[in-house]
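Hey, I was hoping to borrow your eyes for a little while. I'm sending you its amino acid sequence along with the backbone structure tokens. Take your time with it, there's no hurry, and the full record follows here.
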Amino acid sequence: MNRPAATIVSSHGMPSPAATDHPAFGAPSMLSLRDVTVEVLGRTVLTSVSLDARAGELLLLAGRNGAGKTTLLHAALDLLRPTSGQAYRAQPHPPQDPGRQKEGRPDSRLSIGVSFDTPAMLPRSTAREVIDLMAEYRGLPGAEPTSDPALRLLVGDILDVRCNRMSHGMRQRVSLAAALQGDPDLVVLDEPYNGLDPSSMAVLSRLLRRAADRGAAVVVSSHYLAELAPVADHHVVLEAGRVVLDSDLMAPDARQRHTLVVGDRGVAVTVLRQRGVEVDTADGRLDVWVSDRGELATALRHLVAAGVDLYAVMPGRPATEELVSRLLTPDLDEVTS
């Protein structure tokens, strides 16, 4: 789906002073926070948080329990007014322009799909009725949820089950299907993997990646790094209400580790370092850090030209993904010492 250029507007319809496409990558920011601080009952929950979620991007918001992730999402969606700072959301095009309205929507405002960890549903409603109700609320045309093959994988087997007979995971699946239907411009999900079985987790990861690839900005708060981090473009980590990592894997300087299995490791290290390739030999491995496949191919050609036997190339995780894991995993030696 082709997305129109976006203008950033505040919740009150006022243009943002930063209402421009992302300066580095040309994709519009669909959701922006600028120096947002939130205090609740005298306690500071968020401190000067700034971030951008761009069209076509899957942003992972990670952090320990109580780090401020849900509060950040509430502030971004105007469910909570910041103590200071501002939150902006994009507007695809001026609402007064009827010629550019999105088909099936009452106006041309940003379409947002939202799901929180504890979805509230009418007990005697079926999954189908909940999804239809949310579609009507968002101004979407009526459509059978199973008409989308991907959503059918998520909820096709429970459409006629009443909510009071659902497990937490089943209710979660219904809430996610309601949020993702209609290809929203902005998707905001809080702990969407909670309660899901492994099959549903895999389906959800595919749906989130598909939404971003279609041009939506997808913002997901989650503790399930193994499922989400590999498909995310942008990692943001909160610690005690502050952003301690904001790393974009779409950035030109994003680095990824690859492990090489070679015949003569010493010669390989010398050749690579002479060619300016970043090399890491920790833990007895030979790792190279590269920005893209082209840089990796060049490094491998240097090794072959130098007569180094190359047996295997094993792709690793992006550097930022490893850093996310380190930030969220306590050092047991320090804890037990």
User: Anything to note?
Assistant: The chain has a mean pLDDT of 79.
